[in-house]
Specification:
Elements: H1 6-15, E1 18-20, H2 26-38, E2 44-53, E3 60-62, E4 69-70, E5 90-96, E6 101-103, E7 106-107, E8 124-126, H3 154-163, E9 176-181, E10 184-189, H4 195-204, E11 208-209, H5 215-227, E12 234-240, E13 249-250, E14 255-256, E15 276-280, E16 289-293, E17 300-306, H6 312-323, H7 327-331, H8 341-353, E18 357-358, E19 361-362, H9 364-374, H10 380-390, H11 400-414, H12 416-423, H13 440-444, H14 451-460, E20 468-471, E21 477-480, H15 488-497, E22 500-501, H16 508-517, E23 525-526, E24 530-533, E25 538-541, E26 564-568, E27 576-579, E28 592-595
Parallel strand pairs: 12-17
Antiparallel strand pairs: 1-8, 2-3, 2-5, 3-4, 5-6, 5-7, 9-10, 10-17, 11-17, 12-13, 12-15, 13-14, 15-16, 18-19, 20-21, 21-28, 22-28, 23-26, 24-25, 26-27
Length: 596
């Protein structure tokens, strides 16, 4: 029986004491496909479900007899935005009996208003007669939900941090590593913070704090940790029982913990350590567990965003939004010679989403599949040879975005037709607003003069840790550190403690002299911080507010949409801009300080 509207399906189900299809987990969909097969339903059939987009909250929800229940994000992969303002606010399910595959797109709630020759069929299910005993819930908390103060309000979250002097939209890469897995985009933070701050930072970035609603997702995260060992750590999730003790819920999606899907650590949850939940990521599938933690403790965190679909266009659009490309960057994507760092990370996001990249390398099978679809003229042997050759293009500093960029540039040179069709023919999204780079370190790293250290150094011209005075390129006394392992922030703080600053150059000639003086052929070096002056559209040194000559940069300051610092790799004739999140990873053996 075919019905023209979602409401007709709902009313018909109610009239016979049933309800529309409610899929709270994927196993129910598999059960439905099995039942449809036994009922000898046609091979490809579409049905109405009880899914709809709530008019007030705008959340995709199941219309149950008690209250709207948010639809699990894992089931929303086929949902598209209503960009054309049509009433595509109801969810149907199409099943293929022979392959056991399904899709759940949103469609018009009243197909009678269209020329659709085949509206969805009627589908109903029995209403559960008893409470769900599979949930982890205190009996006094039945029906309790996550508090409204734990809902994501992006504008409020951005303002909260802006009031503290932290511009989150200008730090898109400043928080950690991005990965694509489990039909999700994940951000694993480098920093540690409290539960509430983690939740609000994810919200401000247009993402949400991690929810591990299923065993499948937990296993997928473990697989990710096996590939990338530096994320085998403890992270905040959105899980908590703060709104009713014993009622653990994933508050990013307001869903209860299910006993069959949750794996607690031994002795958990005990409530003694705290009421917020962390996940201990492990490379062993059975060892990635949950534990309760003090909500005020500082931990790393994971933000996630749903992949909007698996088509090439949907992945390109999602990556453009996630990475925050500006309009001029979208327009310039075909000009691979002048990529910003954000554009390079866009390629990594696309490569991950299209399964062209796995563990930092081009995957021959998936990549060949795409090129066979979009480039039928080039021979298979040519494609295969190109992929093998381009897989050797890796960034010597281990930067994932830079490595993918170099591999993709190689592919573009050898397979231009397929490359352009895959990456550029499907674009068409409105990019984010442009936000210039600022003097992040100057604003966020405490620069403190150590009067005792400076007084001693001024007299003795050496420091207790082995640093010493040295005549600089201008004939004045500069400082050279002892040999060690220093980050950019280490160098900045030390120079501040001596009342000095990191070196900079006002001309190409001065830069070349500085590079030679610092033995740039044999050692890596740090330079001072810069910012983008939007009024004059030029790069300037933060300490002196003087113009930086573009000739000294290998990428003409294209990393200008996020906090970064200058790094001079040994043997390189030009400096490289590195993003903020690299500040704790890139180190030098020596650093220099110049007089203010």
């Amino acid at each position: 029986m075919q019905l023209g509207s979602w409401q007709d399906n709902w009313k018909t189900c109610c009239s016979i004491g049933m309800q529309p299809l409610i899929f709270t987990e994927e196993t129910k969909i598999n059960d439905f496909i099995t039942a449809a097969s036994l009922a000898k339903i046609e091979k490809d059939t579409r049905f109405w479900t009880g899914g709809f987009r709530h008019e007030i909250s705008r959340m995709w929800s199941w219309c149950t007899k008690d209250t709207p229940l948010p639809i699990d994000d894992d089931l929303l992969l086929d949902i598209t935005d209503n960009s054309d303002k049509t009433d595509n606010n109801c969810v149907s399910i199409s099943i293929n009996i022979s392959t056991s595959k399904y899709s759940m797109p949103n469609i018009l709630c009243n197909t009678d208003e269209t020329t659709d020759p085949s509206p969805p069929h009627l589908a109903c299910e029995l209403i559960a007669k008893k409470p769900n005993d599979k949930m982890i819930v205190n009996s006094t908390c039945m029906g309790a939900r996550c508090g409204i103060n734990r809902q994501c309000k992006k504008k409020d979250a951005i303002k909260k941090f802006a009031d503290k002097g932290v511009d989150l939209s200008n730090m898109r890469y400043g928080f950690g590593e991005h990965f694509s897995a489990c039909n999700r985009y994940f951000l694993f933070s480098n920093e540690s913070t409290t539960f509430d701050d983690a939740r609000e930072k994810c919200c401000a970035l247009g993402m949400q704090l991690l929810s591990v609603k299923s065993a499948t997702k937990r296993i997928c995260l473990s697989k990710l940790a096996r590939k990338y060992r530096d994320i085998a750590d403890e992270f905040w999730t959105s899980g908590t029982d703060l709104d009713c003790k014993g009622n653990f819920r994933w508050c990013s999606v307001d869903r209860a913990f299910l006993k069959s899907e949750v794996l607690w650590a031994a002795g958990e949850p005990n409530g003694k350590e705290g009421r917020c939940v962390t996940i201990k990521m492990s490379t062993m599938f059975g060892s990635t567990t949950l534990q309760t933690t003090d909500c005020g403790a500082k931990k790393r965190y994971v933000c996630e965003a749903r992949q909007s679909g698996t088509t090439v266009k949907s992945i390109l659009n999602r990556c453009t939004t996630l990475i925050g490309l500006q309009k001029d960057q979208v327009d310039a994507l075909q000009d691979t010679e002048n990529y910003t760092y954000a554009m390079k990370c866009y390629l990594k996001c696309v490569g991950d989403g299209l399964e062209m990249i796995d563990n930092g390398y081009l995957q021959c099978g998936y990549t060949m599949r795409l090129f066979e679809k979009f480039d039928v003229e080039t021979s298979l042997k040519t494609k295969d040879n190109a992929i093998d050759q381009c897989n050797t293009k890796m960034d010597p500093n281990g930067d994932a975005c830079q490595s993918v960029y170099e591999m993709f540039v190689c592919v573009k040179e050898q397979l231009p037709q397929g490359f352009n069709k895959i990456l550029f023919d499907n674009l068409g999204v409105e990019p984010a607003a442009k936000i210039p780079r600022t003097c992040y370190y100057q604003q966020n790293v405490m620069c403190t003069l150590n009067t005792t250290l400076k007084a001693s150094y001024d007299i003795n011209r050496i420091t207790s840790d082995g640093g010493s005075s040295i005549i600089g390129i201008d004939g004045q006394n500069w400082f050279k550190s002892a040999r060690g392992n220093y980050t950019n922030v280490d160098a900045l703080k030390y120079c501040c403690s001596l009342g000095m600053q990191k070196p900079f150059a006002t001309s190409l000639d001065e830069f070349n002299k500085l590079r030679d003086w610092m033995d740039g052929e044999n050692y890596d070096n740090f330079l001072a911080e810069t910012y983008t002056d939007t009024q004059y559209n030029e790069e300037k040194w933060c300490d002196t507010d003087t113009t930086v000559k573009p000739e000294i940069s290998e990428n003409n300051f294209k990393l200008d949409q996020e906090p970064s610092f200058f790094y001079l790799p040994k043997g390189s004739p030009k400096v490289r801009s590195l993003p903020h999140y690299k500040m704790g990873r890139v180190t030098v053996s020596y650093f220099y300080c110049s007089p203010r």
